[in-house]
Amino acid sequence: SPSGRKWNVCGFYNPSNWAALWMVRFSPTEKGTWRYVVSVTDSEGTAKSRVGTFTAVASPHYGFVKIAPNQRYLRYDDGTSFYGVGMWYNDSYELFNEGRVTEEGLDNLKKRGANFISFFPTPLETMGTGLGRYDQNRCGRLDQLFEWCEERDMHISWNIWFHSYLSMAVWGGGNARYRNNPYKLVSSAVDFYGNNEAWKYQEKLYRYLIARWGYSRALFLWFVVDEINGTEGWTQGDQDVAEQWCRKIDRYFNEHDPYGRPTTGSQSGGIRQWWPGGYKIFDISNREIYEAQGHPIPKSGKLGPNDENPLQFSYRNYAIQIQNLWSCSAVLSGNRP
Q1: At the top level of CATH, which class does the domain 61-288 belong to?
Q2: Domain-by-domain residue ranges, the chain?
Q3: d(CA 165, CA 167)
């Protein structure tokens, strides 16, 4: 970089783009002249290119989202604060041209004040591709979603492991999809978190995610695992091993994402799903809350004149849980709230 920092940016194989089968994606974070060398390794050895240069000019954008130095809020590279307002907006993309996220939908969210979406993509590894190979149709769709979000200055919280893809039967129905997960070829759902063979393939997957989409300023959060308590590895396996797996992924992204995005992970939204272990592991504490959880709904389904409104109960739930998280954060960091 112009300031002298050295970056190690991985490339990736992209057979969906015949103009450039091997690609390196990179977003400079400093103005001025950058120098680069391309290094390629195959079975015959390693070769390096000559030194090349390019010039980065000023950008109208704020940069990448990171945790502020005081660990209390999010901000962009240039110091501008980031206050996320968004929602889950899953694409469910499996067949060509059948994704649920649309440009019109993003425009509608933007108009209503949203600045990010959270989603879990359909897994890139399928029973058809096998482990270590990625469905390029799905990858191409993700390229499109990232471009759409960048065009609208919207951000993405990427849920890497949605609980259903790690579950055989914990909650049943659409929440049990491990039977279609190629990782079942090397590990049971119960043993997934501690299986060494599965981890080898995961490391390759995480490297690919960073290489192909890590360049994008739209991506602001690695949402490692959603509702981990909805998986056999948690309910029937060793929960300490599950948390060690979370710690390994957190460490991997902290060490390999050159843009320093934060990580998070969650349990489900019941009042009792308080997860102090997870809050210690990930960069951002994630508390899912089902709005009216615990509310004494009348058997008639109708509120009487003396009954508390569920909306009031919901707001109080949020207030209490947020207060608990701030208190927990202060204890974990050694600071007073």
Answers
A1: alpha beta
A2: 1-58, 61-288, 290-337
A3: 6
CA torsion sign for 261, 262, 267, 271 is negative
Nearest to 171 by CA among 232, 245, 89, 237: 232
Nearest to 292 by CA among 279, 307, 304, 277: 307
pLDDT one-digit tens code per residue, 171-226? 988 889 999 999 999 999 999 999 999 999 999 999 999 999 999 999 999 999 99
- Sign, CA dihedral 166-135-254-150, equals negative
Rg (CA), the chain: 22
Residue 88's closest CA among 65, 105, 72? 105
Find, among 226, 230, 243, the residue nearest to 280 by Cα: 243
How far is 114 from 119, CA to CA, in rounded Å? 14
Q: Which single residue is written with the structure tokens 């049943």?
A: 172
| Distance linking the first and last C-alpha atoms of the chain | 38
pLDDT tens-digit series, residues 298-325: 667 677 777 777 777 777 777 888 888 7
Contact status, residue 67 vs residue 262, Cβ threshold 8 Å:
yes
Rounded-to-5 percentages of helix, strand, coil across the chain: 35, 15, 50
Is the distance from CB of 92 to CB of 100 less than 8 angstroms?
A: yes
